[in-house]
Amino acid sequence: MIEIEGLSKTYGDTPAVDGLSFTVRPGVVTGFLGPNGAGKSTTMRIVLGLDHPTSGRVRIDGQPYERLTDPLRHVGALLDAKAVHGGRSAFHHLLCLAQSNGVPRSRVHEVLDLVGLGSVARKRSKGFSLGMSQRLGIAAAMLGDPSILMFDEPVNGLDPEGIHWIRNLMRDLAGQGRTVFVSSHLMSEMALTADHLVVIGQGRLLADTSMSDFITQHSRSYVRLRSPEYQRLSDVLAAGGITAVPGSDGSFEVDDGDPVRLGQLMADHRLVLHELSRQQASLEEAFMRLTAGAVEYHAHPAGADEPAPAAAWGADWRPRKES
Ligand SMILES: Nc1ncnc2c1ncn2[C@@H]1O[C@H](COP(=O)(O)OP(=O)(O)OP(=O)(O)O)[C@@H](O)[C@H]1O
């Protein structure tokens, strides 16, 4: 596992990471989320010993990275897909890594086939597309058959087939009992891939929880009802003591409503419904609500003189208490 304890990193006056503590466990895919500049890449670089923390410590299977013998056999990482010597072929790039980590040559062929680059193994990597470079980076991460894998934005540049492939790969790796730690800004993809989430903002920990708990705690859940008899629906709800707010398309929304109870109530009043559906916000909505106050970079709305105000949406929203 990866254990991070009281980690801080300051560049000049900029605190990139600020007192972070969390543990990434084996057997599940852990998503690492945060707005731009939140400190995700800095944290991952420190885990790999590529940067030194200002304070705090990181342990990989109980040891600091520098103490690992043949580190590629313990932890494989994809941080920057384009950080490859462009004059080298995919095969030679991987062979150099293999030789310096006591990995047999045969494994190079294995990982090239695994990521689908077997047919271009002898081509120089400078001609590779972003998606091909990502696949080469994933091959490098897998080279030492490590128990811990870290991927920084691995789906960046991949086509839909590639995205599907890496989603299954990460889930398979976790299913084999490995530790999989992955950052991405693609929330829909993260929702399908990760079981657990670590969310940071401005270098600080905002959440360390399961995917389902994160969505439940940081989003609104409600039941939507729609009927051709709008006024009768409103009256039946009010008579039943149910607080409902008008939604779009002539619907009503009942926060934390029970669809069974609502359906029975409507049946008792012989009211025709065109919709009775439970609505749960997406990971994207939950993420935006949680991090609204921790977003550093805001776009200027077209034609506006001022930038969009920080935390404009969701600023007054509070996470629900755990029951
Ligand atoms: N080498 C560096 N020198 C100075 N400042 C840095 C350096 N690396 C990162 N930073 C700063 O540290 C903060 C965190 O950056 P980091 O790249 O870790 O964030 P991130 O969460 O990975 O962002 P993104 O999602 O945009 O990739 C930012 O303010 C960034 O400008």
UniProtKB/TrEMBL annotation:
GO MF annotation, one: ATP binding
InterPro entries given in the database record: AAA+_ATPase (IPR003593), ABC_transporter-like_ATP-bd (IPR003439), ABC_transporter-like_CS (IPR017871), P-loop_NTPase (IPR027417)
Keyword Lipid biosynthesis: no
Biased composition (Low complexity): 301-316
Keywords (A to Z) from UniProt: ATP-binding, Nucleotide-binding, Transport
CDD domains: ABC_BcrA_bacitracin_resist (cd03268)
Superkingdom of the source species: Bacteria
Domain ABC transporter, first and last residues per copy: 2-227
UniProt region (Disordered), positions on chain: 301-323
Family: Belongs to the ABC transporter superfamily.
PANTHER family for the chain: ABC TRANSPORTER, ATP-BINDING PROTEIN
Descriptive protein name: ABC transporter ATP-binding protein
